[in-house]
Amino acid sequence: MGVLDAPALPQIIQGGMGAGVSNWRLAKAVSSAGHLGVVSGTGLDLIIARRLQQGDPGGHIARALAHFPLPAVAKRIMDTWFVPGGKADSKPYRSKPVLALRPSALLEQLLVVSSFVEVWLAREGHDGLVGINLLEKIQAPTLPTLYGAMLAGVAFVLIGAGIPRHIPGVLDRLARGESVDLKLDVADALPGEDFLLQFDPLAFLGQAPPQLDRPRFLAIIASSTLATSMLRKSNGRVDGFVVEGHTAGGHNAPPRGVQQVNAAGEPIYGERDIVDLDQMKALGAPFWLAGSYGDPEGLARALAAGATGIQVGTAFAYCEESGMDTAVKQRVLEASRTGTMRVLTDALASPTGFPIKAVQLTDTHSDPEVYAQRTRICDLGYLRKAYRRENGVVGWRCPSEPVADYIAKGGLEADTVGRKCICNGLMAAIGQPQVRKDGNEELSFVTSGDRVTEVADFLEPGATSYRAQDVLDRLLAQVRAGPTSPRASR
Predict the structure, then answer these.
(1) What's the CATH fold of domain 6-324+461-480?
(2) How many Å apart are CA 290 and CA 275, to the nearest integer?
(3) Tens digit of pLDDT for each residue in 77-99?
């Protein structure tokens, strides 16, 4: 398998949270402090297109694009989406091509460029390590997104929300400049019928691809069984694991065994869902613990249990450098300070069918009554699922699209109950809400881990915000103070 060199192992990994929350500013702040800063790769093509339509404040995208190896492609992206001075708040964002089995040349270019830009900006001006986080279940943009990040020198690739056994081999081939493919999960595919996503660096660049450094690969898993399977069956080197518990933010793995819910409709997790850390340690691979380890005691517990360190998301999500909308941050920090913050593990909201953590804020789409007023539309499509049409062509459907449309595509009406448009909600949560024809803006859907109730603890007396360095200082306080012997938890 290969083990990471000990000096290069980060003790703290900043989580690759949802679309745009783990942005380049946050990753840069963490990595320049000597830890692993991670940008979220989810929806980056859309986020970069919208930042350009906001006028590229600070000129950061333009500065990064000046270093992109294909100036003509960089110019095309700027010419297509850049709005000098930014669009009017009352005007909608211009759309971009939706994901497909065979993306248009423009979409493929945007995917490569967007991850290049985000990683390049996160790496600018320091020698720290930067990673990128992707979701296995969002397959269509994976290959060009990885290549763009590698062109920018990404050091780590972290992927969860599925079983990414084929990613190590993809990284190997991309580093050598070779073409790659990835099997697309397609519902109703015939036995032996494969649909392949493809990317060719030679065709994209139009010249011999450069040899690139192969980033280290960390699989995000929720069981030691999956870790064992990844080590044995992956098509390349797995460099370590992030062990994510069910209290972590974003999507959670469903409970193992018989599915039960509590009075609030949340899935009930039990002993089978607690990862055996002795088994993880026995595998011999570096691992980091995530999900309610974001405090000094959590880091000490993780180290005592044999972990290399911890991954922390929620605490960083509400710091000044994160991409979360400032007004949302302030609302959450105030609710945390007053003890009124609540997060619900919503078993139905996500079109993926996975439970998702929904921060309970009024006038957001976590409120079922508020969401019921929204007209169903699926115009971003990141969480759509591929299916085989009768003519053998790949189609796409989403349980949160108009019900009649979903049923017409062979979907079951029961699968649409309680589903929400997470894609548009997450974009609104980072200050990029779409404006609809009636003038209304999409509302936010905010997701965080269970520890969101405690984020106000990072505020100094009288302060209304905190920085990423404040999180790092607090996390490391106990370790810096000297060795302790806390009882390791399983």
Answers:
(1) TIM Barrel (3.20.20)
(2) 11
(3) 999 999 999 999 999 999 999 99
Q: What is d(CA 217, CA 155) in angstroms, rounded to the nearest whole number?
A: 9
Amino acid symbol at 447: T
Residue ranges of domains in the chain: 6-324+461-480
Residue 197, classed as helix, strand or coil, is: strand
> The tokens 């979409």 sit on which residue?
107
For residue 79, count CB atoms less than 10 angstroms from its CB and return exposed for 0-12, middle for 13-18, buried for 19 or more: exposed
The pair of three-digit structure tokens given for residue 186, joined into one six-digit string? 């397609």
Contact between 475 and 264 (Cβ < 8 Å): no
Contacts of 16 (CB under 8 A, 6+ apart): 22, 38, 39, 40, 41, 131, 132, 133, 134, 158, 313
Q: Residue 212 CB: number of other CB atoms within 10 A?
A: 18
Give the whole-angstrom CA distance, residue 396 versus residue 389: 9
Alpha-carbon distance of 167 to 182, in angstroms, equals 8
> Which residue from 105, 110, 124 is spatially nearest to 51, judged by alpha carbons?
110
b (16+ CB within 10 A) / e for 16-51: bbbbbbbbbbbbbbbbbbebbbbbbbbbbbbbbbbb
- At 486, give phi and psi (nearest 5°): -65, 155
Q: Note the pLDDT tens digit of each residue in 115-161.
A: 999 999 999 999 999 999 999 999 999 999 999 999 999 999 999 87
Q: What is the pTM of this model?
A: 0.93
Consecutive H or E run containing 156: strand 156-160
